[in-house]
Write a structure and sequence with these properties.
Number of helices: 10
Order of helices and strands: HHHHHEEEEEEEEHEEHHHH
Shape: globular
Largest sheet: 4 strands, mixed
Distance between the termini: 39 Å
Structural class: alpha+beta
Helix content: 40-55%
Strand content: 15-25%
Number of strands: 10
Radius of gyration: 21 Å
């Protein structure tokens, strides 16, 4: 935390208090019932969290990606589902419009997104196109002044909430130099032929809204193209680099939440006549957990500072996501072990972190993809 400015410290303290007093009390029931609390989402909007890295002219807070990461980390300590709702709402919902949309699209869509009055999803992943996003099969053809879209997407966050306004979809819009031309197109929820399928029954992130999507002859105006035609895949990769910083921040929060819970439990748990925390094996486990949190935080802070300074950051974002994702999973495992049988009970937060954290090594680029990015930066990959 010593790297933060006074203003950043104040933001961290504010969101931590919100997380502890508003988010945490509802987390168990929300996870049990697979329900995203729209009241919590509205409260995050009221705090300005969805608008943190955007300029004031669109209703944002005039902050940066560092500020967003601070908020996501604080939420991730107590509820990863809420943290990913914010992360996806910003990185995948609003950011593509802000970065690549027309001024008309920005003026129309951003104010509600940045205020938390609306959410949006980003339709990229398909059954045959996960890490290989270039294998996109969803098609869009231009007929007159309309795009006609056919295909499907899977694992799309914030796509079916009561306030979801639209999804931005990647689709093949032609061929260029023998390769697929991939573009991104806005599809408003409720458009005929666009079906938000039933939500997934997931291992974790149960209170996060996630659906498969189907497009059957969906027609939207030609003006719904986001960015230049054929730039969709390239634009997405830049959005993904930023998103990896945010996921690393979420992972750091999760790792810290596990550490805090494990320390408290070890101090209060009596075993063989003394506190568990007096046992050296428990102390060493907790010390390793602390080291992981520290390292993960340094990694994502570095990547965020580079991004906000306008410097290259893709390799550092990959390192941050790799280190922090593994820290979250390792700390969740160790915290569960510290808790013993209680760690296997869903009423304890560490059990939820154990289920939630695995996706942090998969979503927005698997561990293997991060290693590939790092290897390429070293000049090792062909």
């Amino acid at each position: 935390m010593d790297q933060l400015t006074e203003e950043e410290h104040e933001l961290a303290a504010m969101v931590r208090e919100f997380a502890d007093t508003v988010v945490a009390p509802q987390s168990y029931e929300a996870d049990r019932t697979h329900t995203l609390s729209m009241d919590v989402v509205a409260s995050m909007g009221d705090l300005g969290l969805f608008g943190l890295p955007f300029p004031e002219e669109y209703g944002g807070q005039g902050g940066d990606y560092m500020a967003l990461g601070i908020a996501i980390e604080a939420l991730g300590r107590v509820d990863q589902s809420i943290a990913i709702t914010l992360e996806a709402g910003v990185s995948l919902g609003a950011m593509p419009i802000f970065r690549f949309g027309t001024e008309e699209q920005k003026q129309e869509l951003l104010p509600d997104l940045l205020a938390g009055r609306a959410l949006a999803g980003f339709g990229l992943t398909e059954p045959e196109a996960g890490s290989d996003a270039g294998a996109t099969r969803t098609m869009a053809r231009l007929e007159g002044e309309e795009w006609v879209i056919d295909g499907s997407k899977q694992f799309i966050t914030n796509s079916g909430t009561p306030i979801t306004r639209f999804v931005t979809v990647t689709a093949v819009t032609g061929q260029a130099d023998g390769r697929k031309e991939i573009s991104t197109i806005i599809v408003p929820n409720g458009t005929p032929g666009f079906t938000v399928e039933a939500p997934y029954d997931k291992v974790g992130w149960n209170a996060s809204d996630t659906h498969p999507l189907t497009f059957d002859g969906v027609r939207v105006p030609a003006a719904n193209l986001v960015g230049e035609r054929g730039s969709g895949f390239r634009n997405f990769l830049s959005i993904l680099d930023e998103g990896r910083i945010a996921i690393a921040a979420l992972s750091t929060g999760a790792a810290e939440g596990c550490l805090e819970a494990a320390v408290d439990y070890a101090k209060s748990r009596t075993i063989f006549g003394s506190a568990l925390s007096t046992r050296q094996n428990a102390q060493f486990t907790l010390a390793r957990m602390r080291a992981r949190v520290h390292t993960a935080r340094l990694a994502w802070h570095h990547a965020a500072r580079l991004r906000d300074a306008g410097r290259p950051f893709a390799e550092q974002a990959a390192i941050a996501k790799l280190v922090a994702g593994e820290a979250a999973m390792d700390n969740a495992r160790d915290a569960t072990q510290i808790f013993g049988g209680n760690g296997f009970m869903n009423e304890f937060p560490v059990a939820r972190h154990y289920r939630d954290s695995k996706i942090l090594e998969i979503g927005e680029g698997t561990t293997e993809v991060q290693l590939l990015v790092i290897a390429r930066a070293l000049g090792l990959a062909g």
